[in-house]
Design a protein that fits this description.
This protein folds into 3 domains: about 5-60 and about 225-355, no CATH class; about 80-205, RNA polymerase sigma-54 factor, core-binding domain (Arc Repressor Mutant, subunit A), CATH 1.10.10; about 360-425, Homeodomain-like (Arc Repressor Mutant, subunit A, Orthogonal Bundle), CATH 1.10.10.60. The chain is built from 20 helices and 8 strands. Helix 4 (about 80-90) packs antiparallel against helix 5 and helix 9 crosses helix 12 (about 195-205). The protein has helices at about 5-25, 30-40, 65-75, 80-90, 95-110, 120-125, 130-140, 155-160, 170-175, 175-180, 185-190, 195-205, 255-260, 265-310, 320-325, 330-340, 370-380, 390-400, 410-415, 425, and strands at about 45-50, 230-235, 235-240, 250, 340-345, 350, 360, 365-370. It is of the alpha+beta class. The N and C termini lie far apart (about 80 Å). Helix content is about 55%, strand content about 5%.
Length: about 425
């Protein structure tokens, strides 16, 4: 065989594997299982194992023995969303039966932002219980994940996030909320008797808070199966990859034997060997996908662990390039691994993509993230005079007051990412 023929055969075997790997890497767990079901239909060599043959899972997680891992696989939900998570937390709480029913009614009456969308007295009447008791249950729910869910409104939610009740920030939200929304600094200073510096620092602190318990602004009507579950155990992160499909498929022994059978025709052998090669590529890629996903999550946790454990309010700067460099892989592979992937975390169901944020340098020299900047821009637009809204240049000047040094084009970029219309489109007559 010539060197050219050898190279040609190598190329022909490599390209399909690359295509398969690229496709399977970027699929969500739901999409992956559907794709594998379709693959079985077109590739006769690939088949599902018998239940008896698929009991053993080769999993090397140092935190888990085989029985623990089997239990984990058995309990992965078919779908997850914020409501499901909250109901689970209620059902496994110390509430008595009646309190659990009330808790469920509260959860089922949340709006898309996670705020309560029903009067407490209506719930009280439904269950013949004092409003005070209903409110006590609601306040317990506020301590569930996501934190603050069930707040009556934005004012209560902001107060919930401010630990120091004696701080200027707390006094502003409690006693000057309308003035805060209108950014009327003079009235705020008059009401609470504070200095300009104290006021500015307090407003910056408030701007750093979340303005919705459900950050994605969606209760998750579309059910999402997590690709992984992360937990903390003895100050270490435990990563549980949803890889129940790894031991679900195999290459058909009958077809494999036929490919090796000397009585099979040349055409039959070629057909079967090509399909065996494709099937093996799929099985190899499934293992590769699971391993790389875990590696990526481990690297993310090194940077965003405090955020995911609620020890930090903002994401740290993190780029795909950082992960790619650490794992010695190309950015496109990391991008595919992150795409469409969700993890079940201590702060709820969250996409991997949302845990990345570019670094920004403030005037003071402090390094912050784009995540924080976007929240501040969103707040500025939310509280602007709707009859005289802020232009991108105006927002730049407002950001300077909050220690951000950014160009107008940067503001325009993040405004578009936040789906905020331009100044003319936002102007009310």
């Amino acid at each position: 065989m010539s060197k050219f023929s050898t190279k040609l055969r190598q190329k022909q075997s490599i390209v399909p594997q690359q295509i398969i790997k690229s496709r399977l890497l970027e699929l969500s767990i739901d999409e992956l299982e559907k794709d594998l079901e379709n693959e079985i239909q077109v590739n006769p060599v690939l088949e599902e194992k018998n239940i008896e043959d698929s009991k053993t899972v080769n999993h090397s997680d140092p935190f888990l023995d085989q029985s623990s891992y089997d239990l984990f696989l058995a309990n992965i939900p078919e779908s997850r969303n914020v409501i499901d998570d909250l109901i689970t937390q209620i059902d496994t709480s110390d509430f008595d039966k009646k309190a659990k029913l009330i808790g469920r009614e509260i959860i089922f009456n949340l709006d898309k932002n996670g705020f309560l969308d029903i009067e407490l007295d209506l719930i009280a009447d439904n269950h013949n219980v004092d409003i005070e008791n209903i409110d006590n249950i609601r306040k317990v729910i506020m301590d569930l994940n996501p934190k603050g869910v069930g707040s009556k409104d934005l004012q209560e939610y902001l107060i919930y996030q401010i630990d120091d009740f004696n701080s200027v920030a707390h006094l502003i939200i409690k006693n000057c909320f309308d003035e805060f929304l209108n950014q009327d600094k003079d009235k705020i200073k008059y009401k609470i008797d504070c200095t300009d510096k104290e006021l500015d620092n307090a407003l910056i602190l408030i701007s750093e808070k979340n303005f919705s318990p459900i950050l994605d602004n969606d209760l998750g009507n579309e059910n999402i199966m997590p690709d992984a579950i992360i937990k903390q155990k003895d100050n270490q992160w435990l990563i549980l990859i949803n890889d129940r499909f790894l031991n679900k498929y195999q290459i058909s022994q009958d077809y494999f034997d036929a490919a090796m059978n000397s009585n099979s025709s040349k055409e039959e052998k070629l057909f079967l060997k090509n399909h065996i090669s494709d099937a093996q590529n799929i099985l190899d890629t499934l293992h590769y996908r699971s391993n790389v996903l875990k590696d990526v999550i481990e690297q993310i946790l090194l940077v965003q662990g405090d955020y995911l454990s609620s020890k930090a309010e903002f994401l740290q700067p993190l780029k795909l390039e950082d992960i790619a460099k650490k794992l010695n892989k190309d950015i496109s592979s990391i991008s595919r691994v992150v795409k469409n992937k969700y993890i079940d975390s201590p702060i709820g169901l969250i996409s991997l993509k949302s845990l990345f944020s570019n670094a920004l340098i403030k005037k003071s020299g402090k390094i912050t993230s784009a995540n924080e900047l976007k929240k501040v821009i969103s707040l500025l637009v939310k509280n602007e005079d709707k009859k005289s809204p802020l232009s991108d240049t105006d927002i730049v000047e407002k950001l300077k007051e909050k220690d951000f040094m950014v160009a107008r084009r940067t503001v325009a970029k993040y405004r578009k990412l936040l789906d905020i219309k331009n100044v003319n489109q936002r102007k009310e007559k």
